[in-house]
Design brief:
Helix content is about 45%, strand content about 15%. It is α/β, with parallel strands linked by helices. The chain folds into two domains: about 160 residues, Alpha-Beta Complex (Conserved hypothetical protein from pyrococcus furiosus pfu- 392566-001, ParB domain); about 80 residues, no CATH class. The strands form two sheets. A five-stranded mixed beta sheet has the order 1-5-3-4-2, covered by helices on one side.
């Protein structure tokens, strides 16, 4: 795992070529020959008008507030998409929830992909070409997949055919965009791997995901250790069957197995009978893993 010290946040060179342009006002350049599909710029929110064809009119206020609070801390990770209508005038194509949350957060500007009216085919070709580059990180690939599906009206099946990837692989990348911003940034900055992220996806609570993320970074946990920890967390949350009622834990110990699993980065089980007797079992994979657990106990 790499250190964050001195690390410059940067898009992969391949995606940067199509997402960034030295000319943000694309009406000022010859778009017929030199326009870069998907140019990105910081636009004033007041100059972006709503899409009249937006099918969704109701937005959950609580979800908007949560996204707004996240944006205040992390910024807008995935830019909205707009269409250039004229001089300093834009129309929203995709990302209304992000735009509304940014307004709620008090932002005056927002990062946006800029498109012209008929560049859908150009954008699709550029994105498909760049997806195959080796220098894109997982989040950049996931965003590219999402853009192709959302903006070019492709299904996952069609996308699979276009880029030669199986649908399950595409689905796994898209799921990364459901992770908390902190986890997405850590993956983008190579602080965790795709394997770490896929394990974190299966953790139900966002707060627990972030706690485990910090533990991965601080302690340098490998993917197997994270998978074991998550397995212990998920098993601890499973409801008890009738046959297990005799060993059910009192309420004050209900979260103990999950807390211990997170503490030791390993599967932990706790059993207790009605007389109060029982045992705690901490799993380990090898001698090195056992030494690590013993050091924590000491």
């Amino acid at each position: 795992m790499s250190s964050t010290k001195g690390k410059k946040r940067a898009l992969g060179r391949g995606l940067e070529a199509i997402l960034q342009s030295p000319e943000t006002d694309i009406t000022a350049v010859d778009i017929s020959g030199n326009y870069v599909a998907g140019a990105v710029a910081e636009l004033e929110i007041s100059k972006i008008e709503a899409n009249p064809f937006q099918p969704r009119t109701d937005f959950d206020e609580e979800i908007l507030k949560e996204l707004s609070n996240s944006i205040k801390v992390q910024g807008v990770i995935q830019p909205v998409t707009v269409r250039k209508l004229g001089f300093e005038k834009y129309q929203l194509i995709a990302g209304e929830r992000r735009l509304r949350a940014s307004q709620l957060a008090g932002l005056s500007r927002i990062p946006a992909y800029i498109r012209v009216a008929n560049d859908e085919q150009m954008l699709e070709l550029a994105l498909v070409e760049n997806i195959h580059r080796s220098d894109l990180n997982a989040i950049e690939v996931a965003i590219s997949y999402a853009r192709l599906i959302e903006e070019c009206k492709l299904t996952q099946e069609k996308l699979s055919e276009r880029i030669g990837k199986n649908r399950s692989s595409i689905s796994n990348f898209l799921r990364l965009l459901k992770l908390p911003p902190e986890v997405q940034i850590a993956l983008r900055d190579d602080l965790i791997s795709m394997g770490h992220a896929r394990a974190l996806i299966t953790v139900k609570e966002e707060e627990t995901q972030i706690k485990l993320l910090k533990k991965i970074i601080v302690e340098g946990l490998n993917v197997r250790q994270v998978e074991e920890t998550v397995k212990g967390l998920n098993q601890a949350e499973q409801p008890k069957t009738k046959s297990g009622n005799k060993n059910s834990l009192p309420i004050k110990y209900k979260n103990t197995p999950a807390e211990l699993s997170l503490r030791f980065s390993s599967k932990v089980s706790l059993k207790r009978n009605n007389n109060g007797k029982g045992n705690i079992v901490i799993g380990f994979n090898n001698d090195e893993d056992l030494d690590r657990i013993l050091n924590i106990l000491k």
